[in-house]
Design goal:
It is elongated and about 60 Å long. With 288 residues, it is mainly α. The chain is built from 14 helices and no strands. It has one domain (66-82, 97-286). The longest helix is centred in the middle third of the chain and has 28 residues, at 142-169.
Length: 288
């Protein structure tokens, strides 16, 4: 058994599903009936940048209708406070602050999957049925979603390990301006700029891998009865057929996270659910 599978199964133990309501049971039964009646081959469409704009617009409509920004605020601010408190308490964590923040894009499809599930529920069953999508994660498709989540977390942890090696081999072992503030050392020393260049290069590689395997696989596993590996395979095919569109979506994700993080992470209360809702509509434009 792989570590990713073990990690994903641990999620099932910790986050137990609440009892299904009558409406949720009916929706699940209807989904299973539709899947059995028309499994059909998965078709990958050709998408353009205008589809990307439309997906963002529809994602914003979902955000306004479901008001997921309010729920995000309730979860995000305590987490942001813990991060700030940790850095203040232990300055040794400061070199990992940027890699952790930028690496959030690697687990973005997992972190925003709940928003995509809400958008899916709203599209299929209306706003009332979209209120409680959590049972999707524990239903017939839950295992694929948990395996994909485990892979995303492993990719994030691998990125942190690589970032740590880069820091240690550049600025971490340099004695240049050793008593200066960390950010000053990063921007005014040769070792600091070496760390920036190597780190950005490695980050681009990780980002491309994350977009290629995660952009379509998560909403696909949410929407159709596929295994995690099948979902990743379709996502790679979508990347090959729509490289400009997929790279454009990756740029939108990075820009959205940066804009959201600039005002002390407060902007993420809007950009995070917006990107999550838009993910569903990006998927719908690529996969038939």
């Amino acid at each position: 058994m792989s570590f990713a599978t073990t990690l994903s199964d641990a999620f099932m133990v910790v986050f137990r599903a609440p009892p299904e309501t009558h409406e949720e049971v009916a929706a699940r039964v209807e989904e299973e009936r539709d899947d059995a009646a028309s499994p059909g081959p998965i078709e990958i469409r050709k998408a353009g940048l205008n589809d990307l704009v439309s997906a963002l617009r529809e994602g914003f409509d979902d955000l306004r209708a479901l008001r997921t920004d309010q729920i995000t605020i309730a979860v995000l601010f305590p987490l942001a406070g813990l991060v700030v408190a940790g850095v203040v308490a232990d300055r040794a964590l400061l070199p990992f602050l940027f890699p952790a923040a930028s690496g959030f894009a690697l687990i973005g499809p997992l972190a925003t999957l709940w928003y995509a599930a809400l958008s899916r529920g709203r599209e299929l069953y209306g706003e009332d049925a979209a209120a409680h999508p959590v049972n999707l994660f524990f239903g017939p498709r839950g295992r694929s979603l948990r395996v994909l989540g485990g892979i995303a977390i492993l990719l994030f942890l691998l990125w942190l390990a690589v970032a740590g090696v880069i820091y240690h081999s550049t600025l971490g072992t340099s004695s240049d301006k050793a008593s200066a503030f960390f950010l000053t050392r990063v921007l005014t020393t040769t070792a600091g700029w070496k760390m920036i260049v190597i780190g950005c290069g490695a980050g681009i590689i990780f980002a491309l891998v994350a977009v290629a395997i995660g952009c379509v696989s998560f909403p696909l596993a949410l929407d159709k009865p596929v295994t995690a590996m099948e979902a990743i395979g379709v996502s790679l095919q979508a990347m090959a057929r729509n490289p400009v569109f997929m790279l454009g979506w990756g740029v939108v994700i990075v820009v959205g996270l940066v804009i959201g993080a600039i005002p002390g992470l407060f902007g993420l209360a809007v950009t995070l659910p917006l990107l999550g809702h838009a993910t569903w509509h990006v998927y719908r434009r690529i996969v038939a």
